[in-house]
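testing teh design pipeline on a random one, pls ignore if ur not involved
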């Protein structure tokens, strides 16, 4: 295996809610990473390991919940607090 064949894989694919964060990264051989693509396959879970996947999944859920708590008070559009420039 050559260095240029090492890629960074998103354990939880971004296409299904994974984030760009080290807890969601896994160094993987490039052709294997291409094989898995953005799909969530049992084969990928078996390759990476259940414990690593569990950590990435827990982080993804924590981040989603934390972002919702942080953003909800500032959601001016759905809260009715948003005013377009012509309404100010």
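output:
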């Amino acid at each position: 295996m050559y260095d240029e064949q090492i890629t960074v894989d998103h354990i939880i694919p971004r296409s299904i809610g994974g984030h760009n964060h080290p807890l969601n990264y896994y160094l993987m051989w490039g052709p294997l990473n291409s094989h898995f693509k953005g799909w969530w396959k049992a084969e990928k879970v078996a390759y990476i390991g259940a414990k690593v996947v569990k950590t990435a999944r827990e982080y993804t859920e924590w981040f989603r919940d934390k972002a919702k708590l942080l953003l909800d008070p500032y959601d001016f559009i759905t809260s009715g607090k948003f005013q377009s420039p012509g309404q100010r």
